[in-house]
Amino acid sequence: MHNFPTGPLRAQRRDFILLAALATLGAGAATAPARTTVLVLGDSMSAEYGLPRGSGWVALLRQRLAEERIDAEVVNASVSGDTTAGGRSRLPALLQAHRPAVVVIELGGNDALRGLPLQNTQANLAWMVQQAQQSGARVLLVGMQVPPNYGADYARRFAAGFEAVAREHRSALVPFLLAGIADGPDPLALFQPDRIHPNAQAQPRMLDNVWPALKPLLHTQDSSKR
Q: Are residues 9 and 120 in the same domain?
């Protein structure tokens, strides 16, 4: 006949079993894969300027991730009117708050509209790419182009700045966010009345321009199984 513990000994054994169970649960939680966070740092092109909520390319990205069964959260930190200097000032706090695995930088168009020096734009982009990479994130730089009335030389140097930063820091690159939209057969049909911001019909094409460069950066457990 066995003698079962009673009184203080029995209470101690119960507490030991409870602690062991909690430790097992804690170990399971610690080994669970963390959800991938994608941070989009952009301007009005990514902030749904003039569009119904939920129709912009970043919102469509969330839908695409769900369709592809990629477990990722999208944080849209885009601000209409923002410049590369504004993005540079905001990025450190965003990296600390969200600790993203992927950072999409879509800035620079407003620098051109304001006539800011190209070397400053390129330097700001390079600094943001470096900061994101040093935080452990993979970076996608989204390029922009300016209309021909800016002058052929300026347009060439502006577009080349994105390529130079991506090449130097080995980041992924979308050469032109508005490819097939601004340079399409009837570009005005895909823009809002201001002729600057793409309309809702253009947003799926914008996502299609971004997706081939973004998808390889989404190294989540779910995507690796596909």
A: no
